[in-house]
Amino acid sequence: MCQQRRVRAVYTMPTLHNPLGWVLNTGQRQALADLARQHDLLIIEDAAYARLVSRPPPPVVSYAPERTVYVTGFSKNIATGLRVGVVISPPRYRPEIERAIRATTWNTPTLISSLICAWIEDGTVARFETQKRQDARQRQQVAREVLCGLPVVSHPDSYFVWLPLGEESRADRLANALMERRISVSTAEPFCVSATIPQALRIALGSVPFDSLRPALLSVRDAVEYEQYR
Ligand SMILES: Cc1ncc(COP(=O)(O)O)c(C=O)c1O
């Protein structure tokens, strides 16, 4: 692609891709850094979910620090409402990033930033992250039990499951049928960058109380099987 088009940047989620849960291994990270150097690309490393992974490989920024902008936050590893981000960037990009922040959000929210800084320093962030990882693993375990036999794509540390459906299934019809049962799932459409959209569901595991998860997933399983054999 770099030979055919003028590519300037690569956006990547190397550590817990949303929605597939993929984690690039160290060889793939090195290959990405080499490619970026060869074609003078900027790498944008979206690490929103990275801290959910128990023993992640080194971040891509450590392979190509001179050309990687590393972005993360606290909404996935700590609490959904903590919408404050962190950007680690080579000095040459900082003026543009600062201008973009000013043009979009004006500045970072002071109270949330000071709360997070205090929580980092007193160990609260580390403690919450440990709890989150345990919670995600337990929920993923429930999902794997309930959806056993279906072609589930997910990472054991993640809060979501990608469920490809058969060719004959219609993800939008399935999502609507589940909505009637008050269960909300995503289709592939919001995640898709290609012209053809696969028939698949993204099932979030974190937004319901733990005790409701199994019954909700059983309803998803019923609906998927009904859709396949209707
Ligand atoms: C892959 C990915 N990156 C970034 C974000 C943004 O997170 P935040 O709203 O905490 O900035 C999300 C949120 O859904 C996400 O899924």
Care to describe what's here?
The mean pLDDT is 95. This protein has helices spanning 26-38, 94-104, 110-121, 124-146, 171-180, 210-229; strands at residues 9-12, 42-46, 68-73, 85-88, 160-164, 186-187, 200-204. The relative contact order is 0.11. It folds into two domains: 9-121, Aspartate Aminotransferase, domain 2; 133-229, Aspartate Aminotransferase, domain 1. The protein starts with 8 loop residues before the first strand and ends with a helix. α4 packs parallel to α6 (210-229) and α5 (171-180) crosses α6. α1 (26-38) links the parallel β1 and β2 (42-46). A four-stranded mixed β-sheet has the order 1-2-3-4, with no helix packed on it. A three-stranded antiparallel β-sheet has the order 5-7-6, with helices on one face. It has 230 residues and is an alpha/beta fold. The structure holds pyridoxal-5'-phosphate. Residues 13, 18, 46, 48, 73, 75, 83, 85 line the site of pyridoxal-5'-phosphate.
Mean pLDDT: 95
The CATH superfamily of the largest domain is identified as Type I PLP-dependent aspartate aminotransferase-like (Major domain)
Which CATH architecture of the largest domain is right? 3-Layer(aba) Sandwich
Report the strand count: 7
The ligands bound in this entry are: pyridoxal-5'-phosphate
Reported by name, the CATH topology of the largest domain is Aspartate Aminotransferase, domain 2
Order of helices and strands: EHEEEHHHEHEEH
Number of domains in the coordinates? 2
Which spans have pLDDT < 50 for at least 5 consecutive residues?
Answer: none
Query: What's the CATH class label of the largest domain?
Result: Alpha Beta
Shape: globular
Terminus-to-terminus distance: 41 Å
DSSP summary: helix tally: 6
Main sheet, how many strands, which sense, barrel? 4 strands, mixed
Structural class: alpha/beta
Strand content: 5-15%
Main sheet: strand order: 1-2-3-4
Tell me the radius of gyration.
Answer: 20 Å
What share of the residues lie within helices?
Answer: 25-40%
